[in-house]
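Look over this record as teaching material.
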Amino acid sequence: MSQPTAQAASPSPIANLSRPTRFRWVVAALIFLIYTIAAADRANIGVALPFIRKEFAMSNTQAGALLSLFLFAYALAQLPAGFATSRFGVRRIFTGAMLLTSVFTGLLGTTSSVIGLKIYRFALGLAEGPLPVGIAATINNWFPPHEKGTAAGIFLSSVKFGPVIVPPLCAAIIALWGWREIFIVFAVPGILFSVIWYFLVTEHPAQSARVNQAELDYITGATPVATAATTVTAAATPVRASRAAPAWLDTLVRARKLAPLTDNKSVFRSWNVLGCALGYCFQLGISNVLLAWIPTYLLSVKKFSVMNMGFVAAAPWVGAVIGNLLGGLVSDRLLARRRKPGMMLSALATAGMMYALIHSPADPLSYGMLLFATGILLSFGFSAYMAYPMGVADRKTFPIASSVVNMGGQIGGAIAPLATGMLLDNYGWDYVFSFMAIGSLISFLVLLTIAEPVQD
């Protein structure tokens, strides 16, 4: 607790260097690695589910309920996590949440009943719930405005990179041992990286001995205009001037200067925050259906082998990694930090891809390419949902605004897998894809109603 004071009184030698450090990108790398592990911990049950159902008899609705238990708990944890992070800081809450995530992941592999699966799956959702709020707060503190979209894209690409590695790795583990060992193996890395996070990542870069004054000034926007004596240093880390967005685009997205939300009551009353949450609700619901049910679809409908299923089921998440990174870069570098264009493009394009999946080919390569394109288009706007609250809230209220948006997304993410199971028991897969297309169109319509915050 004395580190920030001591550092302020007697700066580390590294703080005297003129060339900025770049430790914020080490933080970004840790965000990517840690949440890749967390995303894998939540996604592995989708691959294990067909084999779990051989041991424990379940209808599609019951299987959907098992998948949704995690997501309901995850959604319930968002607001308490926002308040806890705001009060106690990221470091302790995030580290504890990641440790518990790993513990409950491992316990899933030890259960001998459906009740045990449900209890541990619900507990896993509660444990993992604080992670995205903590990461969003870390990005808000550690990155300058023109890099926040990129940092959010890195984080959200990790959400999708976890499912990239899950299907082939789980297929190999099942072939060697069985479905229980999936959860035990996946529990180990999270314990290690939670400890690394605790010792390397401080609440704010000003408290880190690995960040010098030049990088801190760059992050906070205090970097002075280069003089003749500082030209080389300034050139190494310029604060990029945002290119102006086209007037027609600003009209379409309703761009305007907004007064920041300064108290929690204003956050809960803001349609911009609530509308963003509702749009995210439908989009994340689609993502979670693909995550939870596509392995079952490939095995039961397309009749793919376990190994073919493993590789094809990874395809949308390879595309999603690209889509998240591309969406963040385009928003930051090409669209003057406008967040809504990516969100709206994703919503429209995803509706079209859901229709294409109804008429999809049975060939693994062709189907994998279609899922790959779906992943890119679906995820192109995801980083914007995370960055959007940064433009409407101040630093104090941001954790709450972020948790509201994320809770809205997670509620949709929880309902969609359960609704899918019910549709499968009564109708069929064509209705599932149609249901997701309609949800994506609703997301687009909701996004039209919120404002695009313009920052200086």
Remarks:
- Strands lie at 255-256, 452-453.
